[in-house]
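Researcher: I need the complex structure. Ligand is pyridoxal-5'-phosphate. Inputs:
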Amino acid sequence: MIIGHGGNIYKLAKDLGVTPAEITDMSSNLNPLGPPEGLMEHLASKLSTIVSLPEVDAGHIKGLLAGKYGISPSTILAGNGTTEFIYAIPRALGTKRALIVGPTYADYRDACEMYGAEADFLVSQKENAFCMDPKDIAEAADGYDTVFLCNPNNPTGTMVAAEEIKAMAESRPDIRFVIDESYLPFACDSYAESTARYGLENVVVLNSMSKVFRIPGLRVGFLIASDALIAEFSKYVLPWSVNAMAQAAVDFILSGGEAIDTFLKETRAYVKEEKDRFVAALEKMPGITPFGAETYFVICELAAPNTAAALWTALAEEAILIRDCTNFIGLEGEFVRFSLKDKETNTRLLALLEKHLR
Ligand SMILES: Cc1ncc(COP(=O)(O)O)c(C=O)c1O
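Model: Output:
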């Protein structure tokens, strides 16, 4: 397991001698508007379900998700967060050489490393605002059996349209493409605009419930792929890997009809407005360059004499946790990532950045 994830509020709280609840976590990418209204009460009413085994393959919630995408439940697996599937990929796909479109989430490489698969990076450049043409990915994939693409990407926030991913995958039927759509619901109607809707034979789509619905503690995510690939993944999925409370939460969310559709629309509207405001304020500040993003996390480059480590420390002393991005492979320079929260907290962060940046 790597130790480079964001969100380690427990360590910072211990160092500062405060409780984790007193830390403002702007390092992990969770929906500031979540969880959806009524979910907590629903879960409280479902506590008694923990005295029985949950449905072994989470079939009910898989059926609900299938309905949302308009696909067959047989093409879906439910697991203990998408993390369960990321670490199953090298075994299920028989990955020997993976190409990871970076800079990106570290676990794809860690999963390859864990199972002895070689992993190389195809790195996007800041001069192109970290955008990557899928045609270039298809071309660079010669000699690789698996390609990982996070869409929208963490930490750069860049996004590729589903039709372009479809064209890329169709141009390379010899390669398996893993498309991590964990952040797609922040950018668009992720059911209507997912790559999963094309039912491509060589594509695996990951869908996390943790981020947009803000239930990372429940650990639930989905994998969507062709029947043939599902058969391979099924060999590595543990029985009951989605616990009873997680299944109850997803049932509430995916049966939520209009209320949840409204929640998702409001999330997208809030994210856009708040991110635009935040980025506009940063653009006027010295020593920092924000990169436009399709998501509510914003990656920024710091200019000397500012460093990511110094800014991290200065904000940590104010009990604010941000992501120092210097350990992202392929990100050369001093980068930090801010995950936006409510307006008041974001405004406080802007004031602190004014104070600390030179
Ligand atoms: C891009 C990406 N994919 C997957 C995950 C894992 O999410 P989960 O296992 O909670 O679904 C994360 C978590 O930060 C992430 O950033």
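Model: Summary of the prediction. The chain has two domains: 9-30+259-356, 39-255.
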